[in-house]
Amino acid sequence: MSKINPVVHFEMPAEDKNRMAKFYTNTFGWKIQQLGPEMGDYMVVSTSETDAKGHPVKPGNIGGGFYQKTDDPISQHPSLVIAVDDIRESMKKVAEAGGKILGGDPNKPGEPGDIPGVGLYCSFIDTEGNRVSMLQPSDM
Known about the structure:
Blueprint: E1 7-14, H1 17-28, E2 31-34, E3 43-46, E4 63-68, E5 79-83, H2 87-96, E6 100-103, E7 113-115, E8 119-125, E9 131-137
Parallel strand pairs: 1-4, 5-9
Antiparallel strand pairs: 1-5, 2-3, 3-4, 6-8, 7-8, 8-9
């Protein structure tokens, strides 16, 4: 039986990230951490209790992030992030299955990007036009 790769993160675009953060904090009690410009002013979202590294304590729970919506249609819809053991092997499988690799490194299209302290990251378009991402966590 082949390994099942879990969904470990979600991403949601926002026209106004502060308004969005306030909504989800007040409505669902989520905790938001604003990152700096070196991380694209991304907002990390905790949807449950986390450990010292920011990982959910309860198995099966996931966190996410809010990012600035742009004019690019790909950035305008929520997406999921799937954890993989080997990002390059998974990129190959996505392409072989009919997906389109977008990449994660803004300076090298089609190549994974490195998120410092988190891992290698790559987005792709699935066969139905959905933007999805995969992450090879640093601790794997």
